[in-house]
Structure formats: C-alpha cells, structure tokens
Amino acid sequence: MEELTQKLSNGEMTVQELPMPQLSEGMVLVKNHYSLISAGTEGSTVKAARQNYLQKAKARPQQVAQVMQVLKTQGIVQTYRTVMKKLEAYSPLGYSCAGEVIEVADDVTDFKVGDRVACGGLTANHAEVVSVPVNLCVKLREDTDMALACYNTLGAIALQGVRQADMRLGETCAVIGLGLIGQIVCNLLKASGVRVVGIDVSPAPVATAAKHCADLAMVRNTAGIEDKISDFTGGIGVDAVIIAAATPSLDPVNFAGAIVRKKGTVVVLGAVPTGFDREPYYYKKELQLKMSCSYGPGRYDLNYEEKGIDYPAAYVRWTEKRNMEAFQELIATKRMDISYLTTHTFPLEDAPKAYDMVANKTEPYLGIVLKYDTNKTYKYNSIKIADATNVTSNVGVAFNGAGSYAQGQLLPNLPSDIRRVSVMTNSGATSKRVAERFHFEQCTPNEEDIMNNSDINTLFIATRHDSHAKYVIDGLKNGKNVYVEKPLCLNVEELVEIQKLCEEKQKSVMIGFNRRFSPHAQTIKKKFGSGKMSMIYRCNAGSIPADTWIQDMKIGGGRIIGEACHFIDFMTYICGSKPVKVMASVMPDNQNLNDTMNIIVEFENGSTGVVAYYANGSKAMHKEYFEVFSAGASATIDDFNETKIYTKGKPAKFTTRTQNKGQKEMIDTFFANIKDGKTPIPMEEIFAVTLASFAALKSVQEGGAPVFF
Hints:
Layout (H helix, E strand, L loop, with lengths): L1 E6 L5 E5 L9 E11 L3 H9 L3 H7 L1 H27 L2 E3 L3 E9 L11 E5 L8 E5 L3 E3 L6 H4 L2 H14 L6 E5 L3 H12 L3 E6 L2 H10 L3 E4 L5 H8 L5 E6 L7 H9 E9 L9 H8 L2 E4 L10 H4 L14 H13 L9 E6 L3 H10 L6 E5 L11 E2 L11 E5 L3 H7 L8 E6 L3 H10 L4 E2 L3 H5 L6 E4 L6 H10 L3 E4 L7 H14 L3 E3 L7 H10 L5 E7 L17 H18 L3 E8 L10 E7 L4 E7 L9 E7 L2 E6 L3 E5 L5 E4 L7 H14 L6 H19 L5 E2 L1
Parallel strand pairs: 9-10, 9-12, 10-11, 12-13, 13-14, 15-16, 18-19, 18-21, 19-20, 21-22, 22-23, 24-27
Antiparallel strand pairs: 1-2, 1-4, 3-5, 3-7, 3-16, 5-6, 6-8, 17-20, 24-28, 25-26, 25-32, 26-27, 28-29, 29-30, 30-31
Helix pairs in contact: 3-14, 5-6, 5-12, 17-18, 19-20, 20-22
C-alpha cells in the first residue's frame, strides 16, 4: 500500500510503497477514501522539517537540552544515533480520514467488513490503509458524503471547544481565528442556535465566515471593533469567546477579555499563550479561562484509546468518540453544511504538491482533501529493499519490533557477517526505514513471513512487553534462536510455557540483560570470582507518568518487572548464584505504581543483595550505582563510567570514555554462542531472575513477606 511520509531532517516528502499496518487487538483496518490535511498543524510540521539544523535547534530548546544530556552521559556515537533515528525516520502525516472497513481484529464486535467509517488519531494517516483503535473510529450512514466525513478529527476538536464554552440557545459567542477549525466552530455554534461573531487578522477568512457561518464578521484591526461587538450584543458583551487562532501573540487572549461579558468564559482551543493581562478585564470581570483538550475526554488515556475501554455515558456524556459521532450526525443530516470549506482536492500521489502550496502560500486555501483509488485491493505482502547487505551466512536474522532502543543499541551492533533478512514493526513506515537504514533484505507486516522463512534462524524481539512471551513461544515452536528484550514475560503461566518449550525443543532463549556483559562487570568478576558477597544496586530511576504504557501492568508489567529485573540479574551474575528468596518494601503512593522500593534478595550460595529502586529522586544525580563487598575487598561501579576496586591502599580504577552498559559486548557474545551452539546466559539464571521479579511484586502485595522459590 502507499503512504505519504516525511523526513524531519530535510522535509523530504514521498508517497511510497510500505507494508500494511498490523492489525492488533481492538483495532480495525480501514481502506481510505478521503483524508484531510490539517493545514495549521501539519503545515507547521512541514515548515519545521524544512528548516536547517540551526533553525530546528533554535525552535526546540527543550529537545536540544535532552540531546546535550545524552551527549554528556553516553557520548558522541550514541547521541548521533539517537538524533538521526528521529530525523531520518519516515514520519507519517495526517490524523483525520474516512473510508471502509476491510478487516477487524478478533476481539472487535462493533464493526464489520464493509462498514463505512470516519477515523481520527495518530494512526489515521494519509495512507491507502490505516489501522485504527475502535474508540477512534465511528460508523457512518450509507449516504454520508465521505469527502466531508474525513473532516472527522477537526470536527471533534471544534466540538469539544464548543462544549467547553457551554453555550445556551440565543447566546452570543465570538470566535477568534477563522481558519479551518475556526470555521467549523462557527458552523457548530450556528447549528445550535448561538449567535456568532467571527474575527480574524486576514480579510479572506472573514469574508468566508460572513457568507457562511457568522452573524457578524470583522477583521481584527477594524476601527471601533469593541464598540461594534458591544452594539451587536446590546451592550452586554459576548457570553463566551473561543480562541481558534495559532499565534505567539498575547493579543487574542487579551482581546477576548475585552469583548466578553462579566463572568463570561474564554476557551483556548488554538495554540496561543495564556499569560494574559490580569487588569483591566480578567480580574474585574471575574472571567473564566478554560482549555479545550483535543477531541475530548479519552484523549491521551491509554485505557480509552488503546484498550477500547469506554467511559459510561451517564458520567462522561461526551467522549472523543461521541464527539466524532455527533459531528458526523450533523453532516449526514445536513443540519450543518461544511462543503464550502473544501477548496482543494488532490489525489494521494500529488500530496507533496498540496503541502508545497501550504508551506509556500502560493494560493488561498482552507480545507485540502486527499482522494484515494478505492478500486485497489491490498495484501500483507513483504517489500524488498534494494540496498540490502548481500551476505552468505548460516545465521539469518529478523527483527520483530525496532523502536528507539533497538535502533540505538541492538541494530547498530549487529555483526557484519550475518544475513539480515527481515524487519517487522507495527508501523509500515518504521519497518521500511529500519530495513533500509540497517540493510535488511525486506520488511513485512506479517509474522508468518518470519516464522515460516527457512532463511531466518534467529529472531530478535523488541516489541512492547505484553507481546514478548507470545513471540518467544512462536519463535521456539518454529525452531528459531530467540533473543528477547527484558522482560522475558509478564506472569508465571507464560514463564512455565516457555520453560516447557525450551526443554522440548532443546533450545535456549537469550534475554537482553546487557549489564553483565559490560567491561565494568567483567573487571569486577575477574577480581571477585564467585562466592558469598553482599551487594547494593541503587537505581535513581526517575518518575514516569502513571498513564505511560510501561506503568500499565497488562502492557508493560510495571517498572519492577520491566526494569528492576536488570539489577537482580546483575547481582546474580556477580555473585555467581541464583536468587532463592525475595522481600520487598515499597513506599506507598496514591497511584500504586510500586516504583520506589527496596528489594532484598538472598542467593543460593548465601550472598545477599539489595536493589534500591527509586523513582522519587533528582535527574541531576547519576542513575545507577553498584557496590559489592566480599572477603575483605570492595568495589563500586558509578553509572558504568568508572569502576573502583578496594583492597589495600589506593583503589584500582577502571574507566571507560563514555558510559558502557555492555550492549555491544552482549550482541557479540550472543552471535558467537549461536555459532558455537552455546548459551550466553544459563537458562536457569534467566528463569530464576524472572521469578525473582515476580516475587518482588508478590512480596509487596503480601505486606513485605518473604517469598521463596
């Protein structure tokens, strides 16, 4: 299928052949008929991408600060990889479309093949086929005009702004900014019996609004504009103002304060600053300033958007999906006519020309619609990569998942003498770009292309945590060598199944416990060997929002299973013995995140260790610090930059120029072991460490009671 993509490095736009998007749980696959270019939001993205690097840096000081932090801790090479991964990616564009359902996930019951739908969200791209969560997809009537239905997302955004204004029949609302969203806001207000005052800095959209959707429309610099609005409202002032403009100026929010009545409401819908002047209006009028969040309740909620868990209508009447449905009902019943908004229609292949028009402002425009060839059919075909590495090898590799970590730490460290066969990710754009960048032979949307491919005998799994066990099991059943990023799985049942398969197939699984392969770990191991030790591993983990997928127990497993397993494994390696008993003490928090805790681990050989995993510290402090004590000797590792070994006299130091957590050494060891038929990490250690992670959470649930295994 074809999709429009852009490189953020230089703004290069291409309509290119990509793998079909994957159909995950709770998703529907939609063949697009039309999609809408949001000239404001997408136009800003395109203009930013076409800036030179210095201009990009000046426009994004926060991102520059993040890059400098990576440079400080991880060095030039890793910083370059991080930046270029972002800049050279094929970034999709678009977030509002309409089409027909061509496939539904097994757990989806509200949609069927053939349904006409409108879609919103970050996966509703300018592509021939999109995969969209059910709560971001709404059914359409059979007679709905699909070219208007593709305004779906902008309609919901506008409707949420109107709802925030909380207007009543016969009241008056001013709309500042008469671009595409502003025009839709005016139409919604007019359809609900509200008198509309439209204001913009440009004459053209003012004239359009005056003709179609505003009772009074004026250019912002009109002489006596405040008096004219006062006269229009009988001296009261408008009941509410919806700011749909996008500008760094404070004028919209201050002007809103001037024209709204006492105790009125100002709603910020567009991208404007809110540092308003307290005097003379906001304070004396006791005005209410409200923000409007995108499509409405449910936006940015993982449970709502990805898991499809709806809010009860009795408690949250208007969610983002119900806003979309209400907007589509107004269009279908012709109670609102927005057909005049479409000023341009382009076929998908000419989409770059549409964006050139937006970026260069070569002609006036409002709504720009992309049209698709609806007669085409689509299959889950793999795509060959022209610039593949032609290597003859007994080791053929495929990657399932290739996000930031894989692109920064795994893929760059692959040996040059292996065969790079296939890449599969949720996004076709990511799959193709990763395959090109790292010289794989193909990218695919289909797991069977990997599992049934006899050229592939080694599978890397770098997907979200909840899918690790499934892909490990599939890989083992198909006789693959399996490397999986931590965690191995999320529950004991999955672990038991993996253990059985390893025994039946006489296969091992490699897990990404990279720290044990670091030269810092090797230095300590060489000095201390194995034996009874006391250890402390302190991780200044930093906080992660509760709504992040990692914190979700069903998707990410939480931070103990998802990350603290690293540190249990590290102590297991250093002392040379398996964990057998765990006690955990957690600092309670309102969200029950269990990400600030002490985990006490006892090992088979009598060693003890503490994982001090804290999410409540300062980012200015180094993230990781390890101490070990044994037989009169001690050692420390400070953030995998410096190791000190204490015996007698001055400590011996070992340093690396930049942070080295052992990723390259781990990959080298993994492939060396594949060729020799050996196991890099003993399976009994992998299973024991995984159980210890589960035990830590169980201990928390049981009030800190010890858990034996």
